[in-house]
Amino acid sequence: MTDTPTQLFIGGAWADAADGATMPVDDPATGEILCHVADAGAKDAQRAEEAAVRAQEEWARTAPRGRSEILRRAYEIIAERTDELAHLMTAEMGKPLAEARGEVAYAAEFFRWFSEEAVRIEGGHGVLPDGRNRMLLSRRPVGPCLLITPWNFPLAMGTRKIGPAIAAGCTMILKPAPQTPLSSLALAAILKEAGLPDGVLNVVTTSRAGEVCEPLLRGGRIRKLSFTGSTNVGRLLLAQSAEAVVRTSMELGGNAPFIVFEDADLDKAVDGAMVAKMRNMGEACTAANRFFVHSSVAEEFGRRLAERMGALVVGPGTRDGVDVGPLIDRTGRGKVEELVADAVERGARVLVGGRTPEGPGCFYPPTVLTDVASDSRLMDTEIFGPVAAILTFDDEDEVIRRANDTPWGLVGYVFTEGLDRALRVSERLEAGMVGLNTGLVSNPAAPFGGVKQSGLGREGGRVGIDEFLEYQYLAVPVR
Fold first, then answer.
1. Which residue numbers delimit the Aldehyde dehydrogenase domain (predicted)?
2. Is there a contact between 145 and 120 (Cβ–Cβ < 8 Å)?
């Protein structure tokens, strides 16, 4: 921890908060304080904004190849420091080291992907239908951006936003979650080492999000907001962005259905369920929340899933052989406890787990519930924990209706061996992404995002850079 930056990163320099405030960073496996980092206030946000605005014009003129090479160098540095970054992430967030190493690779890939997209920003040319004017279309950076990232994937959510912003020629202020600021500060140091000019990326760590973000959004100089987090906070930020008509992209909550039909390969379905449910201890917006299993295979599916879940080893993420680390904090664990208790009170049976262990840390065991009532709170709440709730169905139309009966629409999972059914059901699901016979959909080369109250816009893929670019149309008379 001694080499990890703990100050704000503004204008290419490390600095304390203007009022000297700091905030603790806790280890969720022990509850102990790892370190203290600078706790930014309104004055620090203003300094960061000034740095980003000041750097914008020159950065926008930077050659696309130059931006590409900075991202490529940063990708290589991240890959070289996989173990160092993984240990840092596990310390502040809790996930097992194997998962942390996987996230480092995932995070680095966004920089490699957008290093390649930076040199492929294209416009257009043509004669308008009336023949009077030529149309020249160019694409230019939207301008200074505010990027707000969550705690569950602290490195990857940073690179997923920073990568396209750098590639497009935008300057940025990054505000990471207060629970996991260290990964973002380490990322800022890497980008500085890779040659990113001063002021292009500014990082403000803070426990005072409203004091920092609201003036930036209402002030008119920030032209783009990219947010990943809860739907409730997203609504608030959208309202704040409206005053200055700030362009927004939102990756919000999820309530993913996981549908297992009677013709599914149960081995594939259980494997997929383990990934879709247990990735990141279930603390993922893509996590399967509601398991709809055909009544003819529900008992066998539940038995197999409970056996697999019960075999997982729970403990500190740094310990060899651990599969499941702690939840992020006691508030997060308390929510999971309450949701399970409510389901049990309404008649659910616990096949495995369901009891909070004694001792320090924020641990909760992998849990499988069956006979879950449809009015249980966890049916319309993002669980964000290692709990699989199984419900049964008998009819295709019925399960599609129930799967779509939610204000969210981020991702859905469908397991069936019938091609016609697979395509038919996938097309009818109200979701931005569908995993067909797989429990993993996230990939830097694919567009990530949802419909309904799961968000606006897409991140990653060929379209990810579009969120940071504007079109300009130039009319040239035909002579």
1. 14-472
2. no
